[in-house]
Design a protein that fits this description.
6-stranded mixed β-sheet, about 40% helix, alpha/beta, Maf protein, about 180 residues
């Protein structure tokens, strides 16, 4: 059985589980060794805007590529933005095999304006949600997505879909060359 080593740029179990799930689906006949490592994002703890959110995920992956050895490196960075239609939270995902990089993005979760305003004031989304919903460390559980969708979707499900789609260039490299 082939061994595929995957490094995730975070020790958050939600992110590690999402990566493990996707690589297991893509490589069902392989032993997936998925490990989370602290990797600096180089952006604010709560990125605001698409550019900073993407940069955070790319920085995490680059740190892993530069300092570690694996078959795949991935990172997920959650952010928020005030779009023309209202505030939302989302995540960028980056997957690399050390030579090629693929970028994916989750769907948007609309945010109440008062929650986004708290982010503008310097709070992290997980802390705001914990306070509003009387939860503890929701960012390592279902996340804001779980709370706002009555647990029909979760932070992990948002990451898994984005990672699943971001793997396309690795499945068909001849089409993406």
């Amino acid at each position: 059985m082939a061994v595929i080593k995957v490094l995730v740029g975070s020790k958050n179990p939600v992110k590690i589980n999402a990566a493990r799930q996707i690589f297991t689906q893509y490589f069902p006949d392989s032993d997936i060794q998925c490990e989370g490592l602290d990797a600096p994002s180089g952006v604010a703890s709560q990125p605001l805007g698409e550019a900073d959110t993407l940069q955070g995920a790319q920085n995490r992956v680059q740190y892993l590529v530069d300092d570690h050895t694996a078959d795949y490196y991935c990172a997920m960075e959650g952010g928020a933005h005030q779009f023309a239609y209202g505030p939302a939270t989302f995540a960028f995902v980056v997957i690399s095999n050390g030579q090629h990089e693929s970028i994916g993005r989750s769907a948007n979760l609309p945010l109440p304006q008062r929650i986004y305003d708290a982010l503008l004031a310097g709070e992290e989304l997980g802390h705001v949600m914990d306070r509003l919903f009387n939860t503890d460390n929701i960012k390592q559980k279902g996340g804001a997505i779980g709370l706002l969708t009555n647990h029909l979707a979760t932070r992990e499900s948002a990451y898994t879909q984005a990672l699943l789609l971001a793997m396309a260039p690795f499945n068909h490299p001849e089409l993406y060359a």
